[in-house]
Amino acid sequence: MATTTQEFMQQLRSKATELFIREEWNDSIKTYSQFINLCTHHLSLPHSSPLHLQKLRKSLCISFCNRAEAKSRLRDFNSALQDCDHALQIDATHFKTLVCKGKVLLSLNRYSMALHCFKTALLDPQANGNCEFIDGYFEKCKKFEFLSRTGSLDLSDWVLNGFSAKAPELAEFIGAVEIRKSEISGRGIFVTKNIDAGSLILVTKAIAMERSILAGKDLSEDTQLVMWKNFVDKVVDFTRKCHKTRNLICKLSIGENEDSLEVPDVDIFRPESVVEVNSSEDIDVDIDIDMVRLLAILDVNSLTEDAVSANVLRKNHDCYGVGLWLLPSFINHSCCPNARRLHVGDYLIVHASRDLKAGEEITFAYLDPLSPLNKRKEMSVTWGIHCKCKRCKFEGEILLSKQEVKEIEIGIERGTDVGGLVYKLEEMMKRWKIRGKEKGYLRASFWSVYSEAYGSERCMKRWGRRIPALDAVADSITDVVGGDLRVLKILMEELKRKGGGNSSGLVEMEKVFTLAREVYGKVVKKQAMRTLLELCIAD
Ligand SMILES: C[S@@+](CC[C@H](N)C(=O)[O-])C[C@H]1O[C@@H](n2cnc3c(N)ncnc32)[C@H](O)[C@@H]1O
């Protein structure tokens, strides 16, 4: 190689290193790229001495490694991973690259592969001076790998500290589920084995999230627009950086012709999956995602933190977030939902809010399940859905055939004594032999009058003996709509009023804990659940 070329390459490398040290990531990537191109070219030329070739290969390995580090600082993890692989092709045990690849894989939630990188790096003599630092990563990977295999999450410490530290980083987890054609609409997620109420089903990190401060008010239209625009920009940015994610996003529904949509294998959503995801519409890797389609996908699938089926764990409740989570996007709506979600930072934890039988479809409540049929129908227009569940069918028939139900609705509008309305509804159900789940449907629909009645001492003095006990109503509602925060709150208030110290209080306390697990999922130990209830119910 001519001396001038050698000098130029040396200059390029020094400049790239300098930019790298100064943390000017974009410029350092550009300069390393120039150097890498030149170096690769020279390696392909004949007549180089073995020593020279060895030197070039070493420089190339270090440059790939540093460019990977710079890319990972810019959160371009997939491209960083490619660079790590190029470096490791040159030197399979290159210490710095192994550490960089481990960190990148950890960011991509590929825990077992990351673990392998750190394990190999620890064998290198260079690890001696960095043992503590690599051990830290190694332990983190081990913990996450276990979590992603078992889904056994414990947020107790964070909750006991009053959510004071940053939201904990979690591992992605996919429980015993599959995606199948759904009788509700299009595709849905189904459990493949029996699951207890409270058990975790999915833990998924958002593709993108955007939050806005509420400051005690509703968001103005302008703020909402800015928030939505920022959110869309983040999703677009992600799709540019990761083609696998872009192809997975393209598998989501746009809310039309759902029954003709392909049913993807759940495994392609696993972070560890390296299978290239072919989209049904072969998308050119270098062309941006079709914006009209993306906007429709986001409209149908993005989730907000203020939904009825969601709980948010954080100190400051004065903000509100919107995000896109891939696998949870396949969960359909039911007016008798069996799952809820918990937001922890950018993670979404989906858990069973009732016991689930193998083969059952997992459903969220997009619409408030503690509201009457007419309200639910009104709200379903926003979602563009026409719910045909058993509950809607039953309530539709009842509304047509039983005048008393309409009278109760009119009574609510006119502000009639709530105790009287509960009494009337219960008497009607007795007379028409409405029992079991159907009784639960109507009680859930008229929850507003039940909760007001149980919450008023005056009302309970007057009607208490003639209407069913709160816990019986709570049980029958929970049986059809799963754990609900509002039911939990009113049970807790009653427990507080009664003092909760005697033996019957202990039984009631156990009931509250059971319901709390259905509402929040099994994410904390009992002592921390007490704190969680104090922190959240106080809101
Ligand atoms: C988040 S996606 C749910 C997964 C979707 N079924 C799929 O195949 O990708 C939301 C869309 O599913 C459909 N959907 C969900 N629940 C429904 C229900 N109970 N009745 C009718 N359509 C429903 C609606 O088209 C809605 O816009």
From TrEMBL:
Residues of the SET domain: 175-367
Alphabetical list of InterPro entries matching this protein: Gramillin-biosynth_MTr (IPR053209), SET_dom (IPR001214), SET_dom_sf (IPR046341), TPR-like_helical_dom_sf (IPR011990), TPR_rpt (IPR019734)
Pfam families: SET
Source domain of life: Eukaryota
PROSITE patterns reported for this sequence: SET
Gene3D superfamilies: SET domain, Tetratricopeptide repeat domain
PANTHER family the record matches: TPR DOMAIN PROTEIN (AFU_ORTHOLOGUE AFUA_5G12710)
Name assigned to this protein: Uncharacterized protein LOC101509103
Organism: Cicer arietinum
Lineage: Eukaryota, Viridiplantae, Streptophyta, Embryophyta, Tracheophyta
Gene encoding the protein: LOC101509103
